[in-house]
Amino acid sequence: MTQTRITVIPGDGIGPDIIESAIQILDKAGCNFAYDFADAGLAALQTSGELLPKATLDLIEKNKVALKGPLTTPVGAGFTSINVSLRKHFNLYANLRPVLSFKGTRSRYENIDIITVRENTQGMYSGAGQIVSDDGSEAEAKSIITRDGAERICVAAYELAKSENRKKVTAIHKANILKTTSGLFLEVAREVAKRYPEIESEEMIVDAACMNLVMYPERFDVIVTTNLFGDILSDLCAGLVGGLGMAPGANIGEDTAIFEAVHGSAPDIAGKNLANPTSVILASIQMLEYLEMKTQADNIRNAVRDVIESGDRTTRDLGGSHGTTDFTQAILERL
To answer: Start and end of every Isopropylmalate dehydrogenase-like domain (predicted)?
Structure first.
C-alpha cells in the first residue's frame, strides 16, 4: 500500500507537543502516513534566519497536504503574518472552521454544530495597501473584493452544505455601510444562492449575526462571509463550544490544503505537558475527511468525544487535572 506523505510543521510553543499527540493518534488509527517535517515561525527564524523558509514551502508544494501547529509571528515592522503568507502563496482561498459541541466541555450551550466558511485571501484582513504617514498621524489600508473571489467562496459554502446534507447557508455582510466591497459580496452570494434552491439561504448584517450567535446559535448551520468578519465570527463560534482549544481550521485551495490548530502558541505553558491537543486532533480529522479517509476520521472523533464526555484524563481547560500525554493516552486506548 502506497503511503500518503504529509508535510508536518510542528510550530512554536506548545506546537511540537500537540502535533506529536496528533501523529500518535493518526498512526494508532491506521492512517499509514509518511511524515516530512518542516520548520516555520520562531523555530525556523532561529535555525535559518527566515520565518517561512523556501524548503518548507517546497515540501508543502510537493506533498499538497500539511498539518500545522501554532506559529508565532514576531510583533513589529518587517514581520509579515506567516499564516497570511501561506494562504497567499498557495492561494488557500477557503478557510473552514467547524465547531461542534462535546459533552464535558465548559460551554454554555449544547448541540452546537456550525461551520464558518471564510474567504481567506481578500478583503481587509489581507493587509493590502497599508500605509502610515511620515509623521505617524494617519494610517490607511485597502480592502479588495473580486467577483470571482466572492463567487468561489460562496460556491464552496453551498457545495459543503450539499455534501454534508446541511439545511441552511447564512451569508454575513455589512453591505448597509460598506456598500462597495461588502455590497459586491452580498450581490454575488444572492446570485449563487439561486443555484441551490434545495438549501435555505439567509443573509444577515455582521453585528446582528454576533448578537444572534450568542442568543440563538441553533439558528445557524453554515456561515459564509468575508475574510475579516470570518476571522472574528469563527472565534466567537469557538467560544460557543468551549474555546479555541476545541476549534480546528482547514485552509483549502485548488490542489493544496493546510490543516491547523487555530489557537496561539501559548509559550507560557510550552514544554510543561499542560496543553490540550484537541484543536489539532480535530484538524487532523478534517485532513482525513479531505483525503476521503472517513472511517479513520470517525474513529478518532468518537474516541475524542468519549474521552471528553467521560472526563477520563482530561486537561485543565476541560475540567480535569491531567496533561497532554495522559489525555493522548486515553484516546489511544479507545482506538
So the answer is: 5-331
Per-residue confidence band for 130, with pLDDT thresholds at 50, 70 and 90? confident
Inter-CA distances, 257 with 86, 245, 263, Å: 10, 21, 18
Letter for the amino acid at 234? Answer: S
Domains of the chain: 1-104+244-335 (3.40.718.10), 113-240 (3.40.718.10)
Gap between the Cα atoms of 62 and 44, Å rounded: 19
pLDDT at 282: 98
Q: What does each C-alpha distance from 187 to 115, 184, 191, 222 come to in angstroms? A: 22, 5, 6, 18
Are 233 and 116 in contact by the 8 Å Cβ rule? The answer is: yes
Report residue 198 as a C-alpha cell: 434545495
Tabulate helix, strand, coil % of the chain (nearest 5). 45, 20, 35
**Catalytic site residues?**
125, 174, 207, 231, 235
Place of cell 464535558: 104
Q: Which residues pair with 139 in a beta bridge?
A: 132
